[in-house]
Amino acid sequence: MSNARDQRLASTFVTLADTLVADFDVLDFLGVLTERTVELLEVDAAGVILSDQRGGWRPAAGSSEDAELVEVFAAQTQQGPCVDCVHTGEVVASADLVADTGRWPQFAPAAAQAGFRAACAVPMRLRDDVIGALTLLNTQATAIDDDSIALGQALADVATIGILQQRAVQHEQIVSEQLQATLHHRTVIEQAKGVLAESGGMDMHLAYLTLRAYARAHHRRLSDVARDVATTTLDAGELLGDPASTPRS
User: ANTAR domain: which residues (predicted)?
Assistant: First the structure.
């Protein structure tokens, strides 16, 4: 492992552990988790599915639009590695989703159509408390290697501890309401991405990066900026014309 990658990995663990801040934004946090997962594990994409605290599971973040779509397929069909992972609390993998159509008859063809042939889901779990799953995706029918799975699990563990640590300072009822609000904000962000994509002639993932860049540059919550764009309180043209909205690596 190179020195630069070591430093990036250390920085990622610090970022995922640092959640006890007043303006903690779960969606931005999960976005960072998926992006750093792709960067550090050298997989093609990553996605997160979260508990909605009512017995269901909902897509919460993805490193790309296709990765998010795979999590939507899983939630809709109640099939796939991530769904099995959250139910068992164990790693669930497929080296070839096409070959696993019998295992997941609805999910596997949909994931393959989205461009992914291999998947591995690791639980976001602290002891017996499973709050979601991090899914690693490859476009080729090649198994995710053991080292990548181990590192993916470590990232998921730190992220889970960070989320639960942040929630622990609040009352249990507020924690549940926060999860519901997170999923609601996710819907608003999707609406705002659509507005920006249409206005700026860009794809949905670039629209998300633009939205996030603007929010960070102006020290605002991602969900608040998305709400303003979706309700036209913030004009899409004004946001797109702001130099601060240019995504940075």
Answer: 169-230
Number of domains in the chain: 2
How far is it, in rounded angstroms, from Cα 173 to Cα 156?
24
User: Is-contact 37 43, C-beta < 8 A?
Assistant: yes
Question: The domain that contains 206 carries what CATH number?
Answer: 1.10.10
Q: Is 82 left (phi over 0), alpha (psi -120 to 50) or beta?
A: alpha
134, 159 in Cβ contact below 8 A?
yes
Residue position matching structure tokens 């969606």: 27
Give me the mean pLDDT over the 151-176 stretch. Answer: 75
At 73-132, the pLDDT tens digits run 888 788 999 999 999 999 999 999 999 999 999 999 999 999 999 999 999 988 888 889
Element holding 59 (H helix, E strand): strand 57-62
Question: β-strands 57-62, 92-94: how paired?
Answer: unpaired
d(CA 160, CA 166): 10
Q: What is the pLDDT of residue 42?
A: 83
pTM listed for this prediction? 0.70
Query: Does residue 204 form part of some domain?
Result: yes
| Amino acid letter, 88 | T
CA pseudo-torsion sign 26, 248, 46, 43: negative
* Section 189-205 average pLDDT: 92
CATH number at residue 73: 3.30.450.40
Query: Within 13 A of 62's CA, how many CA atoms are on the CB side?
Result: 21
Instruction: Write the Ramachandran bin of 86: left for phi over 0, alpha for psi from -120 to 50, otherwise beta.
Output: alpha
